[in-house]
Amino acid sequence: MDKEEIKSLINRWAFYADARKAEAQVALFADIFENSTIMPDGSKQTFTDKAELCAGIKSALGAFQKTFHMNGQTEITENHATSYCIAHHFRADGTVLVMYIRYEDDFVLENNEVKFSQRVLHIEQVEER
Prior knowledge:
This protein is an alpha+beta fold.
């Protein structure tokens, strides 16, 4: 798989999150997929259904007025990537929740497009400002 296509896929996830385009985020996944979020305490939430994932994204981001995801370094191999992101979540009261995230992604080609087959979002640290 082309590394630039993989990097573009990772970046589009962040852009769509900030633009509140949950349906577009979900469309980045293959037909058969797994998306998991692992919290700092080790608790985990996993989605394998696109409608449920879409609702989960809307619910998670709906608590914030605005978000800003800044992607950092990415290591890409043939069909896997590890990438880092600092995500700022702005609340109506002016406070900010900052998440330090590590993504572990696996990819497949589906209809000649690179898609996520598995995405694990590790929230490594959370900071309140």
